[in-house]
Amino acid sequence: MSSPSDVREKMRKKRRELQESLGRVRDDKQALVASDWDLSQDNGHTAVEMLAGGQEDPGETLRRSMMAKRMKKKKKLLKEMPVESPPDEEVTAVPEQDRPHDDDDDDVQPVRDLPPRPAMRPGSSQSETTMRQRMTEKLRAAKSKAASLLEQESIIEPASRLQSLRDRETLTRFDRDTDPDLRADEDSSFTARLKFRDVARRATTDKRTEAGLPTAEEAYNFFTFNFDPEPQQQPRRKKRRPGRREAEEEGEGEAGEGDGEDEEEGEEERECEGEEESEARDEDAPLVRDEDEDLFLIDQSAQDFLEVRRAEYVDYSRRLQRERDTLFVPSMRTVPASSKLAENVRPRYLEEEGLYVGERPHVGLTNQNILENRILKQGEGRKWFGDDGRIMALPDPIKESSSRPPLFHLEDELDPALQTAYRKALKSKHVNLYISGMGDPQSDYQLDVDVSGLIFSHHPLFSREHVLAARLAQLYDQHLTRQHKSLTRLLTDKLNGLRNTIHNMLELHRGEALSQVTQQRMAEYKQEVRHTRQLRDVEQDKDRALLKSIIRVWKELKALRDFQRFTNTPFKLFVRREKVEREQDEQECEDDIMAEVEELQAEMEEDYQKKMSEYRRQHEEWKSWKRKQKVLKKKQKKKRQQEEEEEDEESEEELGEEPEKPDPPEKPDSGSLEEQVREKAARIRRKPGEPVLIPELTVSGPVTPNEQCPRAEFARREDVSKRALFIKVLYNDKEVSRTDSRALNMDFRVHFGQIFNLKIVNWPESIKLQVFEGVGSSSTLLVEVCVPVPESSVLTGSAPSEEMEFSSNQRVTFNHEGVGSGVPFSFEADGTSTQTLLTSGKLSCCVSWAVGEDDVPLAPPSSQPGGGMYSGLGQMDAIACIGASSLNDMKKLGKWAAESRLDPNDPNNTSIMQLLSVVSGGDVAVPEYFRLEQLQEEFNFLTDEELQRSRRFRLLRLRSQEVAEFRHFKCVPSMEREISQKVFQDYEKRLKDGEIIDTKEHIDSHRALVAKYLQKVRESVINRSLIAKHHFMLSDVVSEDEVPSIGVLGWNLFKLAEPKRPLKPHRKERKKVTAQNLSDGDIKLLVNIIRGYDIPVRRLHTSKPPVSAKSGRSFTEPFAAPVLSQINQQGSEWPFGQPLIRPFVEVSFQRSVLQTSAAEGPNPCWNEEIVLPFSAPNGDYSSTSLQSVRDEVFINIFDELLSDVVEDERERENTIHTRIARHWLGSIKIPFSTIYLQSRIDGTFKVSTPPVLLGYSKERSLGSEGGYDTIRSLSEGTFLSLFITIEPQLVPGDTVREKFDSQEVERLLIASEVFEKEASRQFPDRPCLSTVIDINGKTVFVTRFIRPLNPPQELLDAFPNSPQETAELVARYVSLVPSLPDSVSFAGVCDLWSTCDQFLTLLAGDEEEHAVLLCNYFLSMGRRAWLIIGSAIPEGPTAYVLTYEQNRYLIWNPSTGQHYGQYDIFCPLQTIGCLINSDNVWFNIQPYAAPVRMSFDVSKPKLWKPFFSRSFPDPGLSSVQPEALVYRRTDKAAAVELQDRIEKVLREKIMDWRPRHPTRWNRYCISTLRQFLPKLELSGGREVAEEHRLELQSLLGEYTISGFPLHLPFSEIRPIIEAVHSTGVHKAEAPNVEFALAVHVHPYPGNVLSVWVYIASLLTAQ
Amino acid sequence: MTSNNPAVFLLMINGQIEAADFPEYDDLYCKYCFVYGHDWAPTSGLEEGISQITSKGRGSQSLVWNFPLDITFKSTNPFGWPQIVVSVYGPDTFGNDIVRGYGAVHIPFTPGKHTKTIPMFVPESTSRLQKFTSWLMGRRPEFTDPKVVAQGEGREVTRVRSQGCVTLQFNIVTKDMKKLGYDTTSIEHSPARTPQQL
Questions:
Q1: pTM of this structure
Q2: What is the C-alpha end-to-end distance of chain A, expressed in Å?
Q3: Shortest CA gap B23–chain A (Å)
Q4: What are the chain B neighbours of A1026 within 8 Å (beta carbons)?
Q5: What digits encode the pLDDT tens for the residues A521-545?
Q6: Less Cβ crowding at N or C end of chain A, within 10 Å?
Q7: Partner A contacted by B136 (CB < 8 A)
Q8: Angle A738-A743-A744 (CA atoms, 0-180°, nearest 5)?
Q9: Do B134 and A1036 make contact, defined as CB atoms within 8 angstroms?
Q10: In degrees rounded to 5, what are phi and psi of residue A142?
């Protein structure tokens, strides 16, 4: 396959040589050409090539690699060419192929010369360029391409091509590099090339067209050619380049020779073109096929490799040019106004024309220019500009100042005006009467009350004349109003009109038969006429009477004036006469009368007719009746009947005559009628021809001046002048304003003319005006006038002034001329015809709704039905609002609505209409109940019963309820049948167990009860915390770094400058892990055992006791110094030279046991880390679950005992046969919860060693003896340095964030909160406690727990002489109450404190309870005692007890019963936070918190900060503790029974633990031990040890005994078993080992039991 | 699994975390994990994974991982249908590796090909000062467990900011769902049709 390429390579080499030789000559040409291309910039590829040609180095290597690739491709390509001959033939085939190619080249040269991009293709121009230019173009292109083409076709250069080659030598070898690439380009642009050929052809034809007519060929093309759009574009582009051509022509000048050649060639080409054209004309197909064959093939294959093409690079200037077409950078220059406006339009400035133009929003000038330029660039940009040539813009919407001033929250200082003050809420009586919609500020309503004045129609100060004048005025008023109404005239006109109508109607029909309708109407008219006539008569009568009375009163008045000889009133009556034309008047009168008479006649006729018909009917009836009667009574009473009949007939006759009766009066009646009418007319009307009398009352008359009046009258006038009046306006019975007081005038009129504007908030219920009359300063209520509340449509301005009449019934008498009020008086001198007048008058006022500024009535909306009229409640009750309250029956309402004919269109009635339509619309049976989920049943998945029955659903439900058994149940089976009933067994059992007390497990029934109770409390608390668990805080979900405080930051910065100390490693904070995504095996418990102190050492098992042992020791010292020496002496006697002891530590946790290697000596140093796996119960690693882990870490110290078991001495030389035995020396147990909550435990711990350790003794002797040194000796013991932690560090769950309710005073709680907060701020590591939570979950102040309480009397009696021992005994008693940390029982909740009686009842409690009890006991024993809240190891935060006696402080550990001196370095108490007694709480503010370094003098406020101080005194808190504790004597028999049971259980257990060995029990030993245990209990486990040991040794001399008594407080049997198991005594595996086990239970009062277990293994000494 | 009465149904997921769009960040990698209910168990495949670090292409804005997912679950109960939780990490300006987004989506339950786009978000700092210091120290707030984004509990205490999106593609095959009575394919949905031809 390589052969073709080889051939090519050869050819290439040859060509290169040739080119190189030529290249040397053509340097100048090269430069020229290069410059040409640079100028033209038309083809990216060629340009690049040229550039590369100029600077070879950078691209060369790359190109070479590229070329190599392409060569490979070429090979493939060749393979794929099916037309080409097989490679072997290639060599020969090539020259053969040359031919057509060569021809091709000649012919198609201009075509093939095309640069790959048709866009930039130089070509013929149609119009302007000369032929020569066109040729130059082509030649130039040809230069660039010819070489590559040649090569690519694998053509051996023909001699004739040399010419062109010379031009092309610039391309040299790089050309070759690029050629495959180029070819690909060309291939891809093959179609374009074809197109170009067409163009070229057309160009020539174009020339011809220029010359003359279209040729035949052109015509042929026209019809056959498929016109492409592209060729048309090309010429256009070419046009753009005249400038460049010029440059090129300059170049031509320089290189004339080359150009000449070019020209030649160009001409050649033209000829070729011509040929081609002719060919195309004649036989298009062969030529195309020729080209097609190979080109097409290349094209096809090259396309497959397109992706490998070299990356395109568009050079910068070209890119710029290209971008210029699409991109546009708007200029920042100002746009001339002319371009923004239409042509010949001058900018028009609206502002200058006086129109308002808002301020435009501010836009930067440059931005504005940019925007304008951008807009202008668009097609219709101009429409964005306004008339003024600026961009149209709305006015700036931003206000200058913010509408709401900013409110600065300065914490300390708030403007006093803004400060809020507490006002107690006032309950208003009229709360319900508020106008709805008062909320919105626009609707303030205003009532205008206009009090214009008042006129008295009677006043006590009236003189007689006044009375008459008032009457006259009244009558005249009446007359005026009547005249104003002119009812008489109105009625007269109406009457005339009616008469005319009737007349017309009769005229119209003229005797013709009247239709029914007309008759009906006639009748109606006549009826109307009659009615009207009567009314007119009445009115006329009244008019006349009024006129008469006016005149009469006036006459009286005149008479009075004459009589009293002075005038008081200015009234004067004139009667004007109006003359009438007599004849006309008479005529009218006569007409009227005649008409009336006529009508009356007609009426009578009608009446008569009616009566006749009535009569006839009656007659008929009577007849029929009579006939019947006749038939009935004929036979019986003939005669009588006859008579009667006659009578009847007579009456019948009379009746029959009746119709005739009215007939005769018809005529005489008409006369009488006329008379009657005339008489009436004379009475009520003025006589015809009489002048019309019109009275006129004037007030122009002179009033007699005061001086001329008599004294009485003068006094009256004086009195009048003294009087003053004012009016109070009352709104809703509240005075809102009053008028000025005005003097009473002589005419008893008062003018106020005041308008009160009432701005109202409440519904108007009543408006009252009270008229007050005063003399001087005193005033009396004269009268009260109620004014109706106006309709909302009554508005100020349009409302008429109303006159309200009023009267008062007060009695007033005067001794002057005043007539008084309510008293009779007479006008006559003789006192007859008295009359009584009451004060009365008219108040003219006007109440209306005000009109606002913008003509908006300030009235409540009328849509509020009856708003003003009724109470505001009306708005709530639709029925009440229409005035029909308590209309509950819908039917009645409907009836009422129908009756009252409510207008359905009145908006006021909308509500009721709606109501009625609803009611009448259909009997919608409204159900009595309301259902929330009507369709629930349809959506129920299953019925509830099925849901209950299905095991699967039950399982799912229990799981989602997080029931402990199912909380993490995985993969609930999909099928019901796959769930066995067993799944629920445990759960159901537990539910059932709720009621039954399991005595088996708890042994003691009392304890079982307590356990039950605790269990219940725990469950309820846990349920509460489960809910709280689902409350998340941000820190639970998002881990975020705390913001470092400035101090920390500063420290960190400081640390940066610190020198690096690689040898001083820093402790790194471990990352805390929240217990969420943990699984089994993730958590490990790390126990680092560092070293031990004072571990007991072995004592040689000698049968003879050291004699000196007993004498040299005090009784209190259990371990003897002489023993030490003895051992030292005997040390050499050990078979293997064993050291004194080989202790190792074994740590067991969750049944996994690991141990250290054995160290040597009593003070060993292990320094080993033990890693124990931890698995949480049920795989639940939530913090709640972890907190409730009750497992304990047991750390046991053992002595490794190696004993030689080689039986045969001879083997000793080559055999080691050793038995390893281990002896338990002591243990420490640390609950896991402690480790979990404290995250690490670090310190030296006292190992609890058994009081007697057979075979071991303490190495160290004691110091000085005496007095309280026992305390020091107690602190002596075995110690172990430990470091325990959990890896990874777990974050203990937070306590429940829940505020507990309390019965404490709020003030106390706040104070305690402040106290604790301050304490934790000052000393964060010192625990402070002031309030605690009792067992009921209530917050209680801590001092309430402290109260002296009596310890059991037995304990006090035990050591009557030694208070110290009593104290120890009491402490021991307290420590015997089992300890149960709250964190275990009430996981994640909090510390619960129980009172002492609860504690003793439950017999379980935390350190606090122990400490409180101990403290209370000490207090009752008369000691000074405090509760210490501090932290100790290993418990962490805990409570101890402090006592003060004999000038020293003692610290008691209540859980163990141990006590320490203040300066005891082994005291486990590390930090003291606060001291508590029954009076106060003191917080430690000393610099040190360790007991050794502090003072306990609480009276010093500098050292101890008291809670209750002078500023906050003790309120005298009562204690929550009972008065005294009652102890139940424990049943001894029960204790013995318990003892037996424990022993039995333990024995069985030990046998279980030794499954592979028989367990033998040494009865003798057991009985010995059993006797010994009570002694131990009595002595407190110390004194008798040595004695006992000796006793044992003497008894069991032949045995090696290792064993010890264990002492435990009793709670359950499980811990006892655990403790026994952890000692590992059962592991003794010697074949002849025997065991001894003794149990003793000592009962203390109150069911407190002390359990001793003595366990020993015996080995027969050989 | 030829029995006619299957006890479990299977859900096979394969697909890929195709790409992400984080406009301002680069050089990101992602982690994924599945969150599922108690009744679900993975039978094969990886439950968690961490991808390579990917950078943006020159022209493109998306970060392409094409990180395959292949896991099969078995379950007895559709409750707790698996969700995939994707968390994206990348370096900040100081080179600290910080979280760039969390997101979760349920695995589609109809068989066929699905493309899901998960909007991503990150928890916000609690205060401006926190924000500044976290920016400075390169310790932005993170979820203690990325799985919280797949559950509703405890989300109310967080404030988050959206941060781009991740596109995932799933091919889902289920087995025995119908036999157990869970019909997830509706008539309208035709999983065979894929929008390959435009």
A1: 0.44
A2: 100
A3: 24
A4: none
A5: 777 888 888 888 888 888 888 888 8
A6: C
A7: no
A8: 110
A9: no
A10: -60, -40
Give CA–CA dist A780/A773, Å, rounded: 5
List all residues 6 or more positions away from B142 whose beta carbon is below 8 Å from its beta carbon.
A1038, A1039, A1040, B99, B122, B123
- Partner residue opposite A1041 with nearest CB, options B5, B139, B180: B139
Inter-chain CB proximity A1038 and B123 less than 8 Å: yes
Q: Chain A residues with CB-CB distance to B under 8 A?
A: 956, 959, 968-975, 978, 1030, 1032-1034, 1036-1041, 1043-1044, 1074, 1076-1077
Q: B36 with B47: CB under 8 angstroms?
A: no
Task: State the Cα–Cα distance between residues A380 and A374, nearest whole angstrom.
Answer: 11
Q: What are phi and psi of B143, to 5 degrees?
A: -75, 135
Cβ of B58 under 8 Å from any chain A Cβ? Answer: no
B137 neighbourhood in chain A, CB within 8 Å = 1041
Please, are residues A882 and A865 in contact by the beta-carbon 8 Å criterion?
yes
Instruction: Please tell me which residue of chain A has the smallest CA distance to B39.
Output: A971
Name the residue among B81, B89, B102 with its Cα closest to residue B35.
B81
A1034–B40 CB contact, under 8 Å: no
B4 reaches A (C-beta below 8 A):
no
Picking from A995, A991, A1024, the residue whose alpha carbon sits closest to that of residue A1012 is: A995
Quickly count helices (H) and strands (E) in chain A: 49, 39
CA distance B21 to chain A (A): 24
Interface with chain B: mutation pick from A960, A1040, A1056, highest number of B CBs within 10 Å: A1040
Is residue A1174 within 8 A of residue A1085, CB to CB? The reply is yes
Query: d(Cα A660, Cα A1625) in Å, to the nearest integer?
Result: 156
Helices (H), A457-572: 464-485, 487-509, 516-564
Q: Tens place of pLDDT for every residue, chain B, 198 residues?
A: 445 678 889 999 999 999 999 988 889 999 999 999 888 999 999 999 999 999 998 888 889 999 999 999 999 888 889 999 999 999 988 888 899 999 999 999 899 999 999 999 999 988 888 888 888 888 888 888 888 899 888 888 888 999 899 999 999 999 888 888 888 876 554 444 444 434
Report the C-alpha gap between A1650 and A216 in whole angstroms: 135
B 144-163: CB under 8 A from A:
144-145, 147-148, 153-158
Q: Reduced to 3 states, what is the DSSP secondary structure of residue A848? A: strand
Neighbouring C-beta atoms of residue A1564, cutoff 10 Å: 14
Residue in A537, A461, A467 with CA at minimum distance from that of residue A495: A537
Q: What is the DSSP letter of A1126?
A: H
A-chain CB neighbours of B41 within 8 Å are 970-971
Of B5, B32, B181, B1, nearest in space to B104 by CA: B32
Side-chain-side CA neighbours of A386 within 13 Å: the count stands at 12
DSSP string of A946-1008, one letter each residue: HHHH-HHHHHHHHHHTT-GGGTT-----SSGGGS-GGGGHHHHHHHHHTTS--HHHHSSHHHH
Minimal Cα–Cα distance from A1030 to chain B, Å? Answer: 7
Amino acid at site A1392: L
Q: Among A628, A618, A629, which residue's Cα sits nearest to residue A651?
A: A618
* Phi, psi at A961, each rounded to 5°: -80, 0
The residues near A1529 (Cβ < 8 Å, ≥ 6 apart) are A1645
* Residues of chain A scoring pLDDT < 50: 1-2, 25-59, 80-129, 147, 150, 153-189, 191-192, 205-211, 229-299, 302, 429-442, 645-668, 863-888, 922-925, 998-1002, 1102-1138, 1260-1275, 1296-1297, 1384-1389
Cβ–Cβ gap A1038/B143 under 8 Å: yes
